[in-house]
Amino acid sequence: MKFCLLLFTLLAVAAHAQTGLRGTVKNKQGEVLPYAAVIIKGTPSGTITNAEGRYEIALAPGKYDVVFQFLGFQSVQKPAEISSGFATLDVVLEEQAFRLAEVQAKAGNEDPAYTIMRRAIAKSRFHQLQVQQFRARVYTKSSATITDLPNLAEMAFRKQLKEAERDFNFKVGVPMLNENVSEVSFSQPNTYRQKVIANRNSQGDFLNPSRFFNVSFYSPTVSDVVSPLSPKAFAYYKFEYKGTFREQGPDGVPVEISKIQVIPRQYGEGVFRGSIFIIENTWAIHSLQLETVNNIGLSFTIRHVCSPVKGVWMPTNQRYNVAGSYLGVKGHGQYVRSITFNEFVVNPAFVEDIQVADEKKGAPAETLAKRDIKGKQLEDLVKKQKEFSTKNLRQMVKEYEKQEKLARKNRKEDVTVVRDDSLVIDSLAQKRSNVFWDSLRSVPLTNAETKSYQKNDSLKIARTVDKVKIDGTGKRDTTRKAPNRFLPGQLLSGKTWNLTKQTALIYTSPLTRIEYNTVEGYAVEGVLNLRYRSKVDSINRFQQIQLGEWNVGGTGRDQFGRKQLVGFGLASYQHKNTKVSLSGGRYLYQFNPDNPISPALNTLTTLLFEQNFAKLYQKDFVNLTISASPFKERLVLTGSLEQTQRSELANFKENIKPWINWRNRTFTANRPQNAELNGPESTGFPTHQATLLDLTASGRLGATEYTIRNGRRIARRDNDSPLLTVNYRKGMGDVDYDFLQASIAHSFETGIRSQLNYKLAAGAFLNDKKLYFPDFKHFAGNEFFLQQGDVVSGFRLLPYYQYSTGKRFAEAHVLAEFRKFLITQLTLVRLTGLKENVFIHYLYTPASKNYTEVGYGLDGLIPQVLPFFRVEVISQWQDASYKGLGFRIGTTLKFGR
Fold it and tell me: Which InterPro entries match (predicted)?
């Protein structure tokens, strides 16, 4: 009986799904219009056409009014009647006819685009706050195609490309597809919820749902690009009025729509160009087509078409295209998004009939003073007055947000959270049948996309058969199902064994850490780590609450030159934002604990250039470190107590022979040269015992803002508050000193892709009764032509230990990055992704003589080939006296540790 009832229900659903509307949208020349909007008036239903101009939408039998929209074409409304099966409705759209405003013809008048944009900008935040909450069904489809690979890559990786085609359905020229159907919700001020109910990929079974995002051109920036509706828009754009057209608006009332050409003053990364269509009187966005480029030269084209939902124009049809090449790989991608709103609540305080007067064209009948707005409710102000100046409207919205934030504080809500996202994956999302997809899919598949899915389905069956091979005895071969099986080759390659869902044993191959220096000779290092994570799973793997993490491991290092084995053990436990770690053993460290030159780079300089820069000493130690982030991670506290025996080391032998014998070069002793101690002999020290206490506190001077993702709190990277750090070190035992230092670092935008970064630091030994060279304050120097590490606080030409001090110091670093400075004034240069910077580094110690570096750098040394590198020219100065000029190839990449 239950089976019959289930069968009857399925048949009823299937019968309902077999009725609807389909057709093709073309222009008068017979060309298809891809991704045109198809809206069913009076219902939440809608769709868009595919790349072949075809649409299909499931609808119950009945009569409908259907609206067809395409950017740059006149909207058309057609009646449709559905009785049984799919009715066909083909549409031909005509290009939009524009009429010009009379004011444009008057000589000397300002282009009417500017008064339109001033009003639209003034009302932009109003439109963002207008929607109180909504629920929607969102269909997205992304398609990425690699169109060409470098000949060298095709030759070198021919076998891997064949395997990728066989195993993952990847092939040059074939689109990689992802479809996603989600139920999303939003509520003011910052809560977004997404539940993925169906997901499908043409490259395998991996789940790749598109994170719900709320890109709004009413925001000042859109993915770090200045919006044409930003309050700063006039500094970056010029605008031209291109004409006005009329179409049906909400409730059948005609609306006037003006086309505005967006012209960047300097095109390149960080700005758009194209067209934006603004609705007269409401000054809302009707549609837009804008393009931009990113820092590696890829071009992006964005198209939005809005439709009225309860009187509010919302983006229901979005399309994104990307094209270009990177490192010789050419390709293009497309992302389309169709949104159907089914629950929509408008904030009653933000009524759309508010009129905005442009003060530059004529003040409103009444202008409000600041005191007339402060403390007043927006709803009350709107009831008394319908027309406001652009300035007054901005002040009113700002006051509204201030009052809302205070109300949230009074309700004990966390106002530092600027966005709260969650993502839930339905357990059946990847198991939906083709019938289910046909009922959900808003955009029909093209023929090429259908073939791609069919091939992936065939490969899926082949992979399933391949996993269940039958051997000669008739038993299943489970070799491929044993990922934790130990193989001898893993001793050299490294391996991670997932013992349970929470436990993993990680072995790092010594082949990844083969190093050379004049103290150890050749050295190989291996790491073994056992990790255990305790967590609580919620609905799916995207929502897990981390309770704690245990780590137990060890590092062993074989020194071939010294013929010794050193190493240390480590055990740690982390609970939420608190971590306790205990380590101990014997190991070699650089005098500067920040490792000014990485072991990997030092290996290169030693073997190839006969320059060993890393100066090492040995520690036998036990260290206890505790770190915590209290006050909602606004403060980071770290404390360590170490008992150590420190020993000086010499080169492993005299007269070490280099690979290449450079003229006028020889390997130096392991004792650094230091101006304060008068020569390398003075930096030596006896073997001694020391107890070291190290305390550090750092925090932002302003309020830290956060985002929440699936319950996890994350500090925003673009937090522009200065970071203050205070450090205290105490030496006891065979040493006796007290050291205190403080630093402040800050980075903030000065324009599009332009930034000013600085770091100031100062400190002194309050007590210097007894200390050795490892206790000195060391600085981020550099003596090699390749500059790595922090671009802001790293000196470019300073010898590593020449001005290390046991007394006092002050240093200052300033780096200004420019999108447009000297050669980047040229648009073609900017479009390659090049960026210029100017920097100053200053150091004061008793022996440094006001050491100063002034330099100029060009980021993106070879665009799209070496985009992570920069070339720099630096001048050296001491006591305002010029000392020389140097050049560096810079990178922020870390080599080795």
Answer: CarboxyPept-like_regulatory, DUF5686
